[in-house]
Specification:
Blueprint: E1 21-25, H1 28-40, E2 46-50, E3 56-58, E4 61-63, H2 65-74, H3 92-99, H4 110-124, H5 129-139, E5 145-148, E6 155-160, E7 163-166, H6 167-173, E8 180-186, H7 197-203, E9 206-209, H8 214-224, E10 244-247, E11 250-251, E12 254-255, H9 260-266, H10 273-280, E13 286-290, E14 304-308, H11 315-332
Parallel strand pairs: 1-2, 1-9, 2-5, 9-10, 10-13, 13-14
Antiparallel strand pairs: 3-4, 6-7, 6-8, 11-12
Bound molecules: ligand FO1.
Length: 333
C-alpha cells in the first residue's frame, strides 16, 4: 500500500476549473506536468512551448531533447525510468557505433534514432522546426499544440570552472560535474518567438511555468518570448496581461531530477523554492510549492501561493497536480 500524500487543497470534480493554458516546459519535470494538464484539459486548451536551448548537433543529427521528452511523454511513448528517450527501447545502433570507435556517451536508442534522422532530413530541406514538430505530433497521435520556443537555433552554453561547455557536454558527458559560473544562450538575440506563441498566450487564461530548471530550461523560453519580468532592452517586453503561475522544481532544497539545486549552490544562492520564486521575480501572479516547503510560504512575496503535493511519481500524480494547479489558476482569474 503506497502512502498517498494528500494535497491540502480540497476539490471536487465539479470545482475543476477548465482554463486555456500555455505551459512553458523544459525536460523531464516540465514534460510530466504538461502530461498532467493534458489529462485534464481538452487538447485544444493546452499549448506547450518547449525549450530548445538543450538542442545540439551530434553524430551529424539535429537532436532536440526537450521537444522529444515532451512529445514522447504526451504520446505515452517515453521511457518511464529515465523520463527521456523511448520505452521498450533497444540500443543496437549506438552499440555498433561504439564498436566502430564512434561517439556513444549520448545514449540514443534505435527508435529514437528515427526521430533524429527524419527531423534532420526535414530541417536540411528547409522545413521549420515548428512544422517538423507539428507533423511528428500528428504521427504520434498528440492532439495538444507543442511548439519549440523559436524556429531559430538557440544553444545554451554553461560557463564552468573548466571553461565553457555546450549544455549536453556539461549535463550528460560531464554528468554536471564542473562548477557552474553562469550561462549564456547563443543565438538568443536574433531568435524570434515561434509563430503562434504570441497568439497562444493572448488566447490563454494563464501561463504555467512547469517545474523545469529555471536557469537552463525556463529562462531561454522567457527570454525568447520576451516574458522576462523586466522587458529586455533589445526587445520591447511582451505585455503579459494574464496570470503567470510557476511550479517550483525544488522541493526541500533539492531538485527531484537534474542539476538545478547544484547550479543554485554554485552560483552562491541557497537552493530553495524561495530562490525559484525570486528567480521569476515579479512575473508571477501565483507560485506552487510542495507541502515540505510550507514554512517558506510566509517569506514569499509573489502573489498567491498554493501549497500542495508537487511530487509526480505516477501518471495519476501528474493529473492530480494539474487539477490542483487549474483550481489555483481559477482562483486567480
Ligand atoms: N540524459 C542523460 O543523462 N544521459 C543520456 O545519455 C541522455 C540521452 C538522451 C537522448 C535523447 C534525449 O532526447 C534525451 C537524452 N537525455 C540524456 C536527456 C537530455 O540530456 C535532456 O537534455 C535532459 O533531460 C535535460 O533536459
Amino acid at each position: 500500500m503506497t502512502s498517498q500524500k494528500t494535497s491540502n487543497s480540497t476539490h471536487s470534480p465539479s470545482s475543476t476549473v477548465h482554463s486555456r493554458i500555455v505551459a512553458l516546459a523544459g525536460g523531464v519535470g516540465g514534460a510530466k506536468l504538461a502530461h498532467g494538464l493534458a489529462q485534464i484539459l481538452p487538447p485544444e486548451d493546452l499549448t506547450v512551448i518547449v525549450n530548445t536551448g538543450d538542442d545540439f548537433e551530434h553524430l551529424g543529427l539535429n537532436i532536440c531533447p526537450d521537444l522529444d521528452t515532451v512529445c514522447y511523454t504526451l504520446a505515452g511513448l517515453a521511457n518511464p525510468e529515465t523520463g527521456w528517450g523511448r520505452q521498450n527501447e533497444t540500443w543496437n545502433v549506438i552499440a555498433n557505433i561504439e564498436r566502430l570507435g564512434g561517439v556513444s556517451w549520448f545514449r540514443l536508442g534505435d527508435q529514437d534514432f528515427a526521430t533524429h534522422i527524419e527531423r534532420t532530413r526535414r530541417l536540411k530541406e528547409g522545413e521549420p522546426l515548428s512544422q517538423v514538430t507539428k507533423e511528428f505530433c500528428a504521427a504520434w497521435g498528440i492532439k495538444q499544440t507543442v511548439l519549440p520556443m523559436s524556429d531559430s537555433p538557440v544553444r545554451t552554453i554553461v560557463d564552468t570552472d573548466e571553461g565553457e561547455l555546450a549544455f549536453q557536454e556539461y549535463f550528460v558527458h560531464r554528468h554536471c560535474g564542473p562548477r557552474v559560473k553562469g550561462f549564456r544562450f547563443d543565438g538568443i538575440e536574433g531568435a524570434q518567438p515561434v509563430v503562434g506563441a504570441a497568439e497562444a498566450i493572448e488566447a490563454a487564461d494563464a501561463v504555467v511555468i512547469c517545474p523545469s530548471n529555471p536557469w537552463v530550461s525556463v529562462d531561454p523560453i522567457l527570454r525568447v518570448l520576451a516574458l522576462t519580468p523586466t522587458p529586455l532592452p533589445e526587445r520591447e517586453g511582451q505585455k503579459i496581461n494574464k496570470p503567470v503561475v510557476a511550479v517550483s522544481p525544488i522541493i526541500g532544497g533539492k531538485t527531484v531530477k537534474g542539476p538545478a539545486a547544484k547550479m543554485y549552490a554554485e552560483l552562491g544562492i541557497e537552493p530553495s523554492a524561495l530562490a525559484v520564486a525570486e528567480h521569476y521575480h515579479d512575473l508571477l501572479a501565483g507560485f506552487v510549492l510542495d507541502n515540505q516547503d510550507k514554512q517558506l510560504s510566509d517569506n514569499l512575496k509573489t502573489g498567491k501561493i498554493l501549497v500542495t503535493d508537487t511530487l509526480m511519481n505516477s501518471t495519476a500524480d501528474r493529473a492530480r497536480l494539474a487539477k490542483d494547479l487549474l483550481q489555483f489558476v481559477g482562483s486567480l482569474l
